[in-house]
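Hello forum,

I keep getting stuck at the same step: I have a sequence, I want structure tokens, and every attempt I make locally crashes halfway through. Rather than fight my setup again tonight, could one of you with a working pipeline run this one for me? It's a single chain of 249 residues.
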Amino acid sequence: MWSATIGYRRYLEPYLPRFFADAAGKLALAGREALIDLACGTGEIAFGFSKYVGSLTGVDLEPAMIQGAEAAAKERGVKIRLIHSAVEELPDDLGQFDLVTIGKAHFWLKAEATIDRLDRILAKGGRIFICFAGTVRDGDSAWYRAYRQVRRRWAPDYPFHRLAEAPEEFLQDSPFRRVSAVRVVATHTISVDHLVNRAFAYEANSRVAIGDRQEQFIAELRAALAPYARDGAVKEKFQNRGVIFERSA
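Reply #2:
Ran it on my machine without issues. Output:
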């Protein structure tokens, strides 16, 4: 369960304020829109758009995620309606939304019932925005391959192939078509300690999933990163990317 990653999510690749500003521009947001964030987790995407829309709603299946989003909203001073529900079981009287956001969760939502619910809750002229943050796999992040190999070796039964599904594939049999995309790339220096904690922010390698062999897992991560680290840190190039969809004409 993704709720097992609470406490470590802050170590994930960050979403940048510039990304939400650029996305708001591409989406032509006027500040009055109703936004609903599906599989909202602790609310990172919804909060990123908070100053560009009129209202926020978040939906998640895991109660711990809803509680985390409540705490984050209070800390940020942001108002958000939070709903504990599977996406395909959202109530019919929920209303319609001008913007539906999904952050790095579309590959778990692929189902005919989900598409049907998207079509019901999206207002006329509304948009769907599917986005993610992740390491750019090039020379600036040469360490990433070794890091990923350790993580995958420790989760041999996890369906990693699902994570490669593009947003376009998720909506390929739906009434929605891609109209635009947003991408922001940045580079920062990140410590090995940070990357060790980041590993626990993924469902496949959460502390619950690793169990009582956590020290061995940590040692293998550190050993894999050691050849690439300088003064206990590596350079990471990461991206924020989002794809915009609207109903087909």
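The longest helix spans residues 63-76. If your local run keeps crashing, start a new thread with the error log.
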